[in-house]
Specification:
heterodimer; A: about 250 residues; mainly alpha; 13 helices; B: about 350 residues; alpha/beta; Rossmann fold; six-stranded mixed sheet; 11 helices; about 35% helix; elongated
Chain lengths: ~250, ~350
């Protein structure tokens, strides 16, 4: 792990000097601000049962689906397309260090983007002056959910990037997997054919992998270790597959 | 870093025994063996798809070999890839560089990856920038540099950590003659300090820079030795060209008395002034030019010019690769990607 921090700092630096990072950041903030304004407008019309933060975070999947591929599609696909992976792996660096360094850099940026949305809550608190609008519980739970689920989502993006040398293919693959995971899980969870007795184990598995349910638990302040385990094990699995994929492609290059 | 390991300095820099690499049934490298002593510059020649790049990648530990043994400075690549990677500076084919970094940033990053101590890295970067004449562009973005500069950035990067072995895959590809000269001088300046293995298509260049040449075709070594040895071994003869006018008479007999192997190989048609180009060949390596000239004059031939033909490495290369094509013509052709 000697070179992990070298690669991490290099990747973070590369992300910070790249204009696309700022474009993505601005687009992200613009979209989140737009969503937030929409929520506040609804609140101004009629009082709602939930706090604005709770509603705001229910839309977490929307930026996830377009931000995560943008952040991660480049990381390994570009190295392989440019051939720089060859110079990288002929130094005393292991594939694990390369993948983890790139993953950590993408994750840090992902978290930084989300952290910037806390400005929205600050503005609300500063100008609305209405304490009941700002309920710290759902906000903290929401950010915690973002941080934990982000581990898994970004790992999926890195994995997709390890599979292809084409950034666009990696990006689309990542979006597809994320949609399948987030929205497909929700769809399967509500499918009636799974309610049969014989399919009960399958139903249990689908329920366990319900990302939207995990989200509800987190915003209610319930941090379940089983859910943490789901994300951590998913992350570890996706990263192991990324490392294996990079190495397998070397053997067959 | 070699100085930290005095017990290994007696080992040859590169030792390859029975190396085989197959990709999905295609044999790219077929049982090659060679040894490179320390401090030499070795040229690696071969037509496209001969297995040069594959061999180089295996030497760096980037690709695993199918069978055979490769060791760098005594460290086996298969079981100790980390030790090997610390001792090899590698510049791949086409010299891939990150487009959006500055030259000095890139060298700093590479130096950190290659475990150059942070204290020494700054001065070492200055040194290689000086060595490769890159001082002017040290703050430029690599993507905006011309091909010659990029190539030199690649070379600077490969010598950065002062590895005992440097492997460069076609370092002069796409450069203009002036830049080739600079790169050649740069490589020559490493002689004695580092072992350099370069592959190239530009034969005169290999001839000028390299102490020894390996010619590889279809995954096999077809010839190896110094350029002079190769000429003798592969072509096996030296040739003289005489431009002369007049009847040949008993010249053939006279030539036989100079050197029994000397004979007239070909005789061109006479030009407007009656001069013909006569080619003589001999298996003898000694210079017999003067004796030949004297023999011609004593026969009453009017001689305009006499020269000893110097076969270039190109002739050797063509002859060696042709020979290997002939020898494998009967076998099913197995060619891999380079």
């Amino acid at each position: 792990m000697k070179h992990f921090f070298t690669i991490l700092s290099h990747e973070v630096r590369m992300l910070l000097v790249s204009p696309s990072t700022y474009i993505a950041g601005v687009a992200f903030l613009w979209l989140m601000g737009f969503i937030f304004t929409g929520i506040l407008e609804q609140f101004s019309k009629a009082s709602q049962s939930e706090s604005p933060a709770a509603i705001f975070f229910t839309l977490y999947w929307f930026p996830v689906i377009f931000m995560v591929p943008l952040l991660t599609m480049k990381c390994l696909a570009e190295e392989r397309r440019m051939g720089t992976i060859e110079t990288l792996l002929t130094t005393p660096v292991t594939t694990t260090e390369v993948v983890l360094g790139k993953y950590a850099a993408a994750y840090l940026l992902y978290i930084a983007f989300w952290a910037s949305t806390s400005g929205l809550f600050y503005i609300l608190r500063r100008f609305a002056g209405d304490a009941h609008l700002i309920d710290p519980g759902p906000i903290i739970g929401g950010y915690l959910f973002i941080a934990v689920s982000g581990l898994f989502f970004v790992a999926i993006g890195v994995f997709a990037s390890a599979l292809s040398r084409n950034q666009a293919v990696a990006g689309i693959l990542c979006t597809t997997i994320l949609i399948g995971l987030i929205l497909g899980g929700r769809y399967l969870g509500s499918a009636s054919w799974l309610d049969r007795e014989s399919l009960a184990p399958l139903k249990a598995a689908v329920d366990y992998a319900q990302i939207s349910r995990h989200f509800e638990d987190f915003t209610r302040g319930v941090v379940d270790t089983r859910e943490l385990l789901f994300y951590v094990s998913g992350t570890v699995l996706a990263l192991i597959f990324s490392i294996l994929s990079v190495e397998a492609k070397l053997l067959h290059s | 870093m070699a100085n930290a390991m005095p017990e290994t300095t007696q080992q040859p820099a590169i030792e390859v025994t029975g190396l085989v690499k197959t990709y999905a049934g295609v044999t790219a490298v077929n049982n090659i063996s060679f040894t490179v002593p320390r401090g030499q510059i070795i040229g690696f020649l071969g037509p496209n798809g001969a297995g040069k790049s594959t061999t180089m990648r295996i030497l760096t530990g980037y690709l695993p070999a199918t069978s055979g043994r490769v060791s760098i400075c005594g460290f086996p690549v298969a079981s100790d890839p980390d030790a090997v990677k610390r001792r090899v500076g590698y510049m791949p084919e086409n010299n891939p560089l990150p487009e959006e970094m500055r030259v000095s940033e890139y060298l700093y990053f590479r130096g950190r990856l290659k475990e150059v101590p942070r204290r020494k890295l700054g001065s070492r970067i200055d040194e290689v920038l000086e060595l490769c004449d890159l001082k002017r562009v040290r703050h430029k973005i690599i993507g905006k540099l011309s091909k010659g500069f990029r190539q030199r950035v690649g070379i600077a990067e490969s010598v950065l950590a002062e590895p005992p072995v440097i492997i460069m895959d076609e370092p002069t590809i796409g450069l203009d003659p002036h830049q080739i000269l600079i790169v050649r001088d740069l490589i020559s300046s490493l002689r004695g300090r580092m072992t350099v293995l370069i592959s190239s298509h530009i034969l005169p260049e290999i001839e000028m820079t390299c102490d020894r040449v390996l010619i590889i075709n279809q995954g096999r070594i077809v010839a190896q030795g110094t350029p002079a040895e190769l000429r003798r071994e592969v072509l096996g003869q030296s040739a003289y060209e005489i431009q002369a006018a007049g009847p040949l008479g008993s010249l053939t007999f006279l030539l036989g008395s100079i050197d029994p192997g000397l004979s007239i190989a070909s005789e061109g048609p006479p030009d407007a002034l009656g001069f013909r180009t006569i080619t003589l060949t001999t298996l003898n390596d000694d210079d017999v030019g003067e004796a030949v000239l004297r023999a011609c004059l004593s026969e009453g031939l009017r001689v305009r010019a006499i020269s000893r033909a110097h076969p270039t490495l190109e002739d050797v290369f063509l002859a060696a690769t042709r020979r290997s094509w002939d020898s494998v013509a009967g076998e099913p052709r197995t060619r891999g990607t380079p």
